[in-house]
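Progress note, project year one: complex with octanoyl-coenzyme A.
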Amino acid sequence: MNQQLDHINRWIEGNIGIIELNRPHVLNAINRKMISEIVETLEIYDSLEEVHVVVLVGGGRAFAAGADIDEMAEVSSIELERLNQFRDWDRIAEMKKPMIGAVHGFAFGGGFELALCCDILLASYDTEFAFPEVTLGIMPGAGGTQRLTKLIGKNRAMEWLLTGERMSAQIAYELGVVNRLVPKELIREETFRLATKISTNPAMSVRLIKESVLTAVDSTILEGMKYERKNFSLLFSSEDQKEGMRAFREKRKPQYKGR
Ligand code: CO8
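Model obtained:
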């Protein structure tokens, strides 16, 4: 699978499914068609056994400079309701496989929101993050006020969201928005290295760990612990658990099947 759609490129390398945003002439401004192509691809990757991890990158000089302002400028509230476009964004959050974002240049507005949908985020040192919506007379609508607040806390999120100011990659790293900072020329290589590492682990463990961590974000510790224990027990019915522990005891490399 190596395809160029209208606004994204998609291809598979080893066990990694890659999505590259591809509207470089507008710094990958996200329009409705692009989001639907991203979601369609994520759902294909989620259903393909050979794909273990998904990587999201931006083509050109930015990850994404926000939602497409040209598409939004004249739209009415009723039209927005009718389009129900956030349904596609909700589907991103339903993705079972881990999604790693590799951002560079700008991750603004909807581009920052897309980055926040990722489970792990790498950024090049030159990346600037921002929610400029407030300066345009709107506000984030694809999870920005919620995900940023959960990630960095109320007061800090409030400052970035109310000022619309740019956050450097270094600050984003210090606040825990970004996992790793990488030189620009190495961002894809480093991201693929990390994705490959995760992709060699048993797929069902990876899947249930992701699910359990996401549960932690939205539940009490007691509810989360119950969920974790169910998933822990569940893994003992997988072939990979038997293989992993047998291989350890036999002092050999495990052969995982994703079952
Ligand atoms: N929408 C449409 N076009 C854009 C966007 C955008 N968000 N960002 C950049 N472009 C276009 C520019 O208009 C320009 O086009 P042209 O060459 O035809 O003039 C081209 O991309 C290159 O941009 P610049 O010349 O401005 O490049 P600079 O390096 O000078 O500046 C910036 C880069 C600072 C990123 C600047 O382009 C900018 O400020 N862009 C707008 C950023 C912004 O306000 N983003 C937030 C948009 S609102 C939003 O995201 C709401 C999300 C709601 C939920 C999601 C729903 C889908």
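The first helix runs from residue 32 to 47.
The radius of gyration is 19 Å.
No further modelling is planned for this target in the current period.
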